[in-house]
Each structure stands twice: as structure tokens, then as C-alpha cells.
Amino acid sequence: MIPACDNLGVNFPSTRRSAVFATGSADAGQRRQAFEVLVEAYWRPVYKYIRLKWGASGDEAQDLTQGFFTRAIEKSFFAGYEPAKGSFRTFLRACLEGFVANERKSAQRIKRGGGTEVLSLDFESAEGELRQHEPPAGLSMEDYFRQEWVRSLFGLAVESLREECAARGKQAHFGLFERYDLDEAEATYEELAREFGLSVSDVTNYLAFARREFRRIVLDKLRETTGDDQEFRSEARLLLGVDPG
Amino acid sequence: MRWLGHKTLEHLREVVEAPDLSGTKYRLIREIGRGGMGIVYEAEDVELDRRVALKVLNGVDISGEARILARLEHPGIVPVHDVGTLPDGRVFYAMKLVEGTRLDRLAQSGASLADRLRVFQKTCEAVAFAHSHGVIHRDLKPENIMVGSFGEVLIMDWGVARRGPQPDAAPGTVMGTAGYMAPEQARGEVDRVDERSDGYALGAILRFLAGDREVPRRLAAISAKAMATEPGNRYVSAQDLGADVARFLDGLPVEAYHEGIFERLARVASRNQMAVVLVAAYLLMRVLLLLFTRR
Ligand SMILES: Nc1ncnc2c1ncn2[C@@H]1O[C@H](COP(=O)(O)OP(=O)(O)O)[C@@H](O)[C@H]1O
Predict the structure, then answer these.
(1) What CA–CA distance (Å, rounded) separates B241 from A97?
(2) Which of B5, B36, B91 is facing A184, going by the closest CB pair?
(3) What residue spans define the domains of chain B?
(4) pTM for this structure?
């Protein structure tokens, strides 16, 4: 028997809840945690977007990035998100556009914060990425933001997988994933088996494990950083390259 | 955080997207292609030790396609082996892995007209079989027809096929491919789409196969009849269409074309070259004999 599918179909089981809505929670602890999740996923795309879109200097972009998230926390920006009107990613970018336009109009206020770093973000590495990897020519700012968001999401998922494998004593699983799925130089299972001192069937199984975990982590992170279920699915389809039906 | 380049991101996207086949008896081999309804993978059935094609659906209700296919047991129709659900809830079905050349590519590869027409006849037979089971394909085109290395023909992509006379779509819904779609189908007149709409698509396929240079008139007439604007003016069935092509191949008069006396003579002559030579030789002898005996 074929189970009935709803018309959206893809039914990704996920253990996580949306952090977007938790930012409006009555519980301060939950609110803070939700913001951490969102800041972690979005700060790099936000910083790079500011640098490119408005040609802001590194210092100014750092201030604006800090300011944007701090203000979002203070004013509970994100709780105003309505999934029916579009993706959270687009909503966040619209908030950012408004925020930066305002800040730049009254340039004095840029001194806000006065050096007190509210969030500890690794701007240096983001700056290094910008310097080393030119954005592809002809990409719209909207597509650029989405691309950087995907990069950030996958990057975080790789780090989570690394930590999870380490914690479970499965360093070889991650090592194989890193060599086979992250390095651009191509290696065969046989080569990897020799390199890691494993049998080819172990390589197959370890890789299958790592990929399955990676998949789960990506979907969990996506779940956390999108609004409702419908948005989660449509972003998953976008991210996974499956056309929304 | 590790920098992920464009190529790596694309690859990871595929890793995430790849169906999780754990818990099934299939092992993923590679992606074959993707269409409107889902993604098709080559996979190994570990239990039976054979290769299959796995179609993982985007989510649109698929029971249609798999069930329709499962009841159409015919050498010209891709058999479905199995259906199932992935851990993520997506539905898939396993079918025969079709290896061969797509008809559009075969036509470009320089196969002879006679070979192309024999493939076409087999296509008509499979379509006629589906029709006899009340199934209309609705998206017949060269890209959906595979030709195996032994000349076997398999019709694929029954994703928008429909069973029974009951229209399943709201009026105005257009499913199919421009250039192969019957006018009534292109206009979204869903209640007028029937076997003869497939017949129109077959006519368009025939025209495609005949090529655009030096198409014999009688053959052009067959595709023109099959593609008549008014369904009532088309062939009554896919079988009839195939039969007319068979007659063309055998050098017999075709239903679609009324030939003049000279065309008829020329056709008969070219069909019976040996007989014509013998008759001509005989007549020549008679004439010569006559001339000699006169003297
Ligand atoms: N049973 C099969 N064996 C081999 N290849 C197949 C099979 N079914 C589909 N394909 C291939 O998979 C791709 C996508 O198929 P499908 O989803 O039916 O595409 P579309 O909807 O575009 O016709 C196509 O390139 C098709 O040739």
C-alpha cells in the first residue's frame, strides 16, 4: 500500500523546533537560546551582505552587524515574522535593509555600542573569506544572501558533525566524510580504505553513517532557522534543489 | 569554520538530497535524471542482485503512476517491481532499469527510415495496449520512448497518465508537451482528451521520425491524418495508425492517401521490382516474336 501523501509531500522528520518563534517566548532563557541559534546561522551572511551591498568598511559592517542583532533582540524583531508572507530568510533581509538604511541616515548613531561587543563573532574569519573568495559576477544581492546562508548552514552542520563524531569516538567516520565529501580532490573508496587502514566495506558503512548524520543535522538546523512547517519544507526543497511542486 | 567552496556546496546538497535507502533492500548507485515528478536513480536490488531504476517522488500523489503501470503488463511498457516509503516520508517506486537510446537520439544517430518506422509500430502497439486497458498516456514524445539494443521499445513516464474516462483535472489544466500535444489538450479541454489525443502525439512522433527531407508523400499523409485538428478525422485507434504504417512499409496502399493511377503503378513497380522486370522481359519477347513472325 502506498500511504497518502499530502500535496506538499516531503515529510522530513525533525526533532527540532523553530527558533524563529521561540524568539517571542515569554521565557527569557528560551528567548536567549533562540537568538543564539539565529545569530549563529545568519551573522555571516548578514555581515558579508552589508559589506557588499552598501560597500561598508569592515569596521562599519561589524558595528552594523552587532547593532542589527542587538536591536533585533531588544525589539523582538523576529517574532513579527509571518510565514504566510514569505520565507524567514527574506524577512530577515528586509529587516536588515530597513535597519541599515536608518542607521546610515543618522550616521552619528553608528557609534552606538561604543565598542562594547555584545556578541562575540569571528569577524576576522568572515573578512578572510570575503578577501579570498570573490562573489561570482552577475549574482543578484538576493541570490548572494541566499548562497551565503546556505554556505553558513552547511558550514555549521559540518562543525556539528565533527563535534558529534568526536564525542562518540567516531573520528574515522568524520575523517572519511571530510576526505570524500568535503575535499575537492577525488578519492576512491579503495584509496580511502588504504589511507585509513579499513576495509572497503567499512569505508562504505562509515561514510553512509556520516552522511546520514550530516543530513539529519542539516535538516535540524534548517528546522530551527525557519518559521513554520510549510516554510521549512519549501526551504528544504530549495536547499535540496528539488523544485517545489 | 571550514570554508566550503562552490563545488563542495553543490556536492553536499546532493548528499543531503540523496535518498536515505537504509531499511530498504536497495543500494544507491547514481542519479540518472530528474523530471517534473521526482528524481530517478539507478540502484541495486541487493536481495535479487539486479539493477533497477528508483523513482523518488517530490510528493505529488504517486499512487496513480505506479498503480497504472503495475497493471499494464506489456513488453512495451516499463514494469514496476515495487513501491515503498523512505525514512523521510518520500514515496518511491522501483521499476525496470531501461538501458538503451532515447528515440530522439536514435533518430539523430542515422537509423534507416525503415528501422525508425518499425520502432514506431511497436510504440503504437504498446499505446494501443494501454488504451485497451483504459489508460491514456497524455505525454507521448520521443524523449519518453526508449529503444533497447535488440530493438525493443519501452514507453516511459506515465506520470500524467490517466485511467478511465473521468477527467482528473480542472478544466483549463494543460499537461503535456508543446509540439506533441493535441489541440484539444493544449486548450485545456480536459473532458475532450481521450485516446485520440495520444493518437495525435503519435502522429507528431511519426512526423519527427520521418525527418524533414524527402518524406514520401504517403507517409506524410499518415502523420497528417493522425494529427488532424478534429479528433474525428484522426485514426480511430493507435492500432489503425500502426497498421497504416505497416502497409506503407510493405508497399501497400495506405488508408490516409488516395493515389492516382501513375502513383499506384510506380508504387507497385517499386514494390515488385523483380516481377516488373520479368513481365517487361516477357512483353519484350512477345513484341520481338510478333515482329519476327510478321516477316
Ligand atoms: N526505468 C527507467 N530506466 C532508466 N532511466 C529512466 C527510467 N525512468 C526514467 N528514467 C530517466 O530518468 C529521467 C527522469 O525521468 P522522469 O522523471 O520520468 O522525467 P520527465 O518527467 O522529465 O520525463 C529521464 O532522463 C529518464 O530518461
Answers:
(1) 63
(2) B5
(3) 6-96, 101-249, 268-293
(4) 0.65
